[in-house]
Amino acid sequence: MSEFDIGGIENSHPTFQGKCQPCKEAPIILFILAVCSFAIGTTEFVIAGLLNILASDLNISIPVAGWVMTSYALSVMAGAPIITAFTIHLRRKYVLIGLLALFVLGNLISAFAETFTFLIIGRVLSALCHGAFFGISAVIASHIVEPRKRSMAVALMFSGLTLANVLGVPLGTLMGEHWGWQSPFYAISAIGILGLIGIILFIPHRLSLPPTHLAKEIRALMRPDIGLALLVTALGFGGLFASFSYISPLLINVTHFTQSGVAYLLVLFGLGLMIGNFLGGKAADKSLTTTLYVTLFLLSLALIILVWTAHAKWPAAITLFLLGIVGFGAVPALQMQVMHRAKAAPTLSSSTNISAFNLGISLSIFLGGLGIHFGLGYTSPSWIGSILTFSALLIALFLNRKYKVKG
Predict the structure, then answer these.
(1) Fewer CB within 10 Å: N-end or C-end of the chain?
(2) Which pTM value belongs to this model?
């Protein structure tokens, strides 16, 4: 395997000299990154299917159990830009190895946790790797393919997240039901170790980010249009998670599915995510702005529809599938809009946008929990999410009218 840099000083690979050319190592690199994103996605989302079991076992309420997801999201939000800033001049392979090692450690602590406190500690440690990992991976993915395929490459890297919802979360839910909520974290740790081995063996040694300076990247991120783009990410994606974070209590208490039935419905939701991620990547490569508008509008609409259909099993299942399609259909556009605007800050903009994703998640989990806490019912997180996503659409319209960007 040849060694190369992404725009580094020691650049000897034609992919990164001037205009990007296809990289022959791109498929294996994207596959390894997708495996790692599968493990990371599973550990983030699996709690959604285990909230009832977790709350019962630890003798806490559903909203308090939601803090297991909130603590993860807040840790990603805080850790992504800080870790990225401190590692920006280090070789990407070594940074990825360190991040995956921290991820495995955090999941092992979660697996052995017997109290809420130790579970939170494990979640925080595993979350610290999340933002920086996806931030670095998104830049790598977008630089190892030709420009017209960059959104699709980012979507492929994120495909591990969608597969996590197709397989990881439902299987984790079933494991938690039969062997306790800790059991999925053992499996996640094993997958993380496999991803770590893949990075060590197959990611080229001389893999670095485009040459840049931290101060220059920070200045680039201070532009008002970047701040608005990050806000679109936070509110747009947060809307989905206002509903999804409490999907298990909704399906059990309102739609009257069993815990096992929830696991199968999460497979259906995950299939929607996979389809949406693929279609969203293809669409964003053709028209980034249009894709952003359409997916945010449809996501807001689907969340409102779920409020009505949650009271009947088949309509709820269909809506959940459609919600997955439009929810992750927005992800490539949300990621690429920030990277496209902040070309002078490729690394920090990417990781900061991952922080924005998780800021939105933590905010939406909190607001969704408030809706349940104040007696608005288990459907309230969905209409709260719809409001958040529609707000993101309005901001996106204003952003692209005032600060136009091609695509």
Answers:
(1) N
(2) 0.71
